[in-house]
Amino acid sequence: QFFPPKMASLADDNNSGSDNDEVLDLSNGAILDKYKCAAEIVNKTLQGVIDTQLKDGASVNAICKFGNAVIKAQCDATYKKNKKMEKGIAFPTCVSINHCVCHFSPLEAEDVLLKNGDVVKIDLGAHIDGCIAVVGHTLVVGGGNPTAPATEGETKVAATDGDKATGTYADVAMAAYKAGQLCLTMIVPGNTNTLLTETIAKVAEAYGVNAVQGVLMHNMKPFVIDGNKCIINKVEPDQNVDEIEFEPYEVYGIDIAMSTGKGKPIERDARTTVFKRAIEAKYALKMKASRYVLSEVDKLYPALPFATSLLTDIRQAKLGMKECVQHDLLQPYPVLWEKEGDYVAHVKFTVLVMPNGTQRITAPVVDIDATCSSDKSLPEDLEKILVDAAEAAALKKAKKKKKKKKKKKN
Questions:
Q1: CA dist., res. 318 & res. 114, Å (int)
Q2: What are phi and psi of 344, to 5 degrees?
Q3: 57/219 Cα distance (integer angstroms)
Q4: How confident is the model at residue 364 (pLDDT cuts 50, 70, 90)?
Q5: Strands 131-140 and 216-220
Q6: pLDDT in tens, 4-34
Q7: In Å, what is the CA distance from 305 to each residue of 171, 232, 373?
Q8: What is the DSSP letter of 70?
Q9: Which is it for strands 336-337 and 266-267: parallel, antiparallel or unpaired?
Q10: Which end of the chain is more exposed for a tag (fewer CB within 10 A), N or C?
């Protein structure tokens, strides 16, 4: 997840959401199935948002509501026999535009409309019985190149359908997606988080962009979206994480953010609307509105992030959030911004680290080479890693296909 430097601290992952002795990692087939079910839901939701919602004049508030409603409806349609099972939103739908880096899920009164040429970052997540899948994707509304910021006396030119993006936006988008592909090949048992962070830095340098600081990728466990094992997007003198080694049966949210700017996002005047309950924190709240907020959060979103718009009484929620945050009962996910005119690309996906290979279970349905064209490229050693990985995947797929044909004949 994204946090400004002062907030980029590690979370306590001791709350697994279960008090029994059941094995809660991927070695348990039932747990594995729940992760895959959550992944199918977020993949479908993301595709639905892209296919039906991202158009000129569309309301960001309405898109976020649509994404959240689709997640909820799909979750409700799974594991119907178990009435007590918790399932639903693991990260509320956010649609961050242009130089807005992350966490933008505006209330109706603060809504923004999309325009052709806007760069949009979509971020969302679902869970089944606490088993979390997240996804993030960047694209240009209308396709082609984003609309360049107009200088005085100029008129903005909207993007056109079907064209490949070029220039600085293509550089930053390619950097984010190539870094994600490399992380996928490297997040295997025995490798370390340091290797991934160093690789992200090399990719950013190759494409002439900056990795965004304050981005932490976490391991995930049932009902824990931000576990103690972290990968940092960019090392800073005042911000780093302990070195860890990847192990079999772990789940990670790979979260890459690149910027054509300095990569040092800041908070501005946009209202924070995404929060997570700090489970261990206690305080006797004074305001009635604050007590309402905490009561509803404890009932509906006791462990995972939610948006203010998901609460029943928005007016009460707006009044009560401040006291809850002041006393550390809620952890805010602030809306962060780069400098106006900068482009930010964000890609996020969920991986399962298995003994027989790492599986990516969520992914934007996109071929970055089909949508962007950059005159920059990866260093030869990193390009070779991707080529080798693609060849190995193709070979594995061919063997699987051959095996299936053989079974049919028999």
A1: 25
A2: -125, 135
A3: 37
A4: confident
A5: unpaired
A6: 443 433 334 444 444 456 788 999 999 999 9
A7: 31, 20, 36
A8: H
A9: antiparallel
A10: C
